[in-house]
Each structure stands twice: as structure tokens, then as C-alpha cells.
Amino acid sequence: DAKTTQPPSMDCAEGRAANLPCNHSTISGNEYVYWYRQIHSQGPQYIIHGLKNNETNEMASLIITEDRKSSTLILPHATLRDTAVYYCIVRVTGTYKYIFGTGTRLKVLA
Amino acid sequence: NAGVTQTPKFQVLKTGQSMTLQCAQDMNHEYMSWYRQDPGMGLRLIHYSVGAGITDQGEVPNGYNVSRSTTEDFPLRLLSAAPSQTSVYFCASSYSRPGGRATDTQYFGPGTRLTVL
């Protein structure tokens, strides 16, 4: 099964860049990597996704390694409101399932 | 668009009772799914549907039933509630079924907080 591995927690100073890593070594060639975040107990919120190339939107940037076995979500100027659990997910190969792991709990410090 | 809506927001059940958690979306999304989230844990997939009339099991399907008679609605039924089903339940939908495409982005509802005594 496709699986992602993330560090359980990270701290980041307000105004600095937050770099959240994710390993997805079993990802298939045409699978996207998705990032979501969950603030408090709200429903997860989509952030960004990518296939091969680096991607950027108004929320974040996504860097995917050339071998596609890992990626990094970058929040360029973290604010206190970015404190959340961040999930990196990929599709389980051969199925219609996305499996969420336990994510990375990011705490942005004032 | 209202997006993904879930009712009720909160529910308390006694062991053995049954109930249905409602989920609806107005985006004409093909794919819908149910997750549960226990305290301090990530989301676990219960059941999912790739279209009207088609459902399948996720990671933790035991004790739950689903049906998909329309594109818009995807109710989750607890057959005989147990304390182990105390959790927050999230419904999600996406334009297309997971298949490595950009349109797989899932939109989540606000959740239903269920307590089983």
C-alpha cells in the first residue's frame, strides 16, 4: 500500500518559513501528492498538490524530489494561524482510497 | 454552493442504538467518502463511493453501512452503536474518483461529533 511518513511535530517561529517533509517512497509514477491541513477539529482543508514539478499557490509551495520519493511543503512566512496538523497523502495504488496518516503537528511560535 | 454539509453537528447515543449521519454535497461530485477521527489520531477511511449505486469498504468498515442512491447524498448508518464508535466523523467529496488526477481534490464537511455512552 502507498504510505506516507511524516515527523509527528515541528515548531516554527512566526514570520519564518516552515518546511514540512514527507516520504512517499512507494508512490506510483502517475500519482499526485496532496497536502491538507486541519486546524483544531475542523474538517481538513486542501492546500496544494503536485505530480512532478514544483508547485506554488497563494498558500504554499510544494517541492517534489526528482525521484518523487519525497516532498516538502513550504509555508513561506508562517503565521500563528498556520498552527495545525498537516497531512501528506497519496492514493493507495490500485484502489480508490486515500489514506491519511497521523500528520505533522506544526506549532507556530510568537 | 453550500459545499459539503453534515448533520447533525453533535449526537449522543446509548450503546445499542442505531442512527444515520447525513452527508450531502451540491457540487455534482462523483466520489464521496466517510472518515472517522479519534482523539489525537489521523483520519481513517470507513467507506467510500465512486458514484451512485457503488460503494466499497475503507480501512475500518465494521459496524457501519452506507448507500449511495443519489449523486448528492451519502449517509452513514451505525447499526448498533458501541462506545468504540465515539469519534468525530467527516464526510468528503471530490469531482473525480482517486486516480492520480488533479480533480481528485477532496472537500471536507465540518464533521459530526458522536458520543456513545
Helix percentage range of chain A? under 10%
Give the strand line-up of the largest sheet of chain A.
1-9-8-3-4
Tell me what portion of residues of chain A adopts beta-strand conformation.
Answer: 35-45%
Low-confidence stretches of chain A: none
**H and E order of chain A:** EEEEEEEEE
Integer average pLDDT of chain B: 93
User: In whole angstroms, how far apart are the ends of chain B?
Assistant: 36 Å
Question: Kindly state the mean pLDDT of chain A as a whole number?
Answer: 91
Radius of gyration based on Cα positions of chain B: 13 Å
The fraction of residues in strands of chain B falls at: over 45%
**Mind summarizing the main beta sheet of chain A?**
5 strands, mixed
Structural class by sheet pairing and helices of chain B: mainly beta
The biggest sheet of chain B, with number of strands, parallel, antiparallel or mixed sense and barrel status, is: 7 strands, mixed
Uncertain residue segments of chain B: none
Quaternary class: heterodimer
| Total of DSSP H or I helical runs spanning 4+ residues of chain B | 0
Tell me the overall shape of chain A.
Answer: globular
| Residues in helix, % of chain B | under 10%
The ordered H/E elements of chain B are EEEEEEEEEEE
Question: Largest interface, by Cβ-Cβ below 8 angstroms: which chains and how many residues each?
Answer: A-B, 26 and 33 residues
Q: N- to C-terminal separation of chain A?
A: 39 Å
Report what the structure shows.
The complex is a heterodimer of chains A (110) and B (117). In chain A, strands 1-9-8-3-4 form a five-stranded mixed β-sheet, with no helix packed on it. In chain A, strands 2-7-6-5 form a four-stranded antiparallel β-sheet, with no helix packed on it. With 110 residues, chain A is mainly β. Chain A has no helices and nine strands. Chain A is globular, with a radius of gyration of 13 Å. Chain B has 117 residues and is mainly β. Chain B contains no helices and eleven strands. In chain B, the strands form two sheets. In chain B, strands 2, 4, 5, 6, 9, 10 and 11 form a seven-stranded mixed β-sheet that branches. Chain B has a four-stranded antiparallel β-sheet with strand order 1-3-8-7, with no helix packed on it. The radius of gyration of chain B is 13 Å and the shape is globular. The relative contact order of chain B is 0.32. The interface between A and B is medium-sized, with 26 and 33 residues.
